């Protein structure tokens, strides 16, 4: 898995990816860097969320209500 990530060049495009800290997986299941890939496996790199999904939904809903009632936020 680690070799596939390195060969893909994604670390050059997104230097903030740190394989020592960020978790990796195959098709939505956590996998170690030394995992052996099979043909057509989808490699994933998991990073921490930058926003709380519940809070974002609440804010969007509040904006939608305000727009429907003609109030600007």
Please count the helical segments.
Answer: 3
Measured on Cα atoms, how large is the radius of gyration?
19 Å
The dominant shape is elongated
Distance between the termini: 47 Å
List SSEs in N-to-C order. Answer: HHEEEH
Q: Which sheet architecture does the biggest sheet show? A: 3 strands, antiparallel
Residue-averaged pLDDT, rounded?
90
- Give me the count of strands: 3
Strand content: 15-25%
Q: In percent, how helical is the residue content?
A: 25-40%
Count of spatially separate domains:
1
* Category by helix and strand content: alpha+beta
What key attributes describe this structure?
73 residues; alpha+beta; three-stranded antiparallel beta sheet; 15% strand
Descriptive overview:
With 73 residues, this protein is α+β, with helices and mostly antiparallel strands. It contains 3 helices and 3 strands. The chain has one domain (2-69). It has helices at 2-8, 10-13, 53-69, and strands at 23-26, 29-31, 43-46. Strands 2-1-3 form a 3-stranded antiparallel beta sheet, with no helix packed on it. The longest helix has 17 residues, at 53-69. The radius of gyration is 19 Å and the shape is elongated. The mean pLDDT is 90.
